[in-house]
Amino acid sequence: MSNGGFGEGRGEPSATVHGRVGEVEVVLEERSGTGYHWAVSGCPSAVFPLGDSLLPPASSSPGALSRRRFRFKVIAPGVHEVQFELKRGWEAMPARRCTAQLVIE
Question: What's the whole-model pTM score?
Answer without folding.
Answer: 0.84
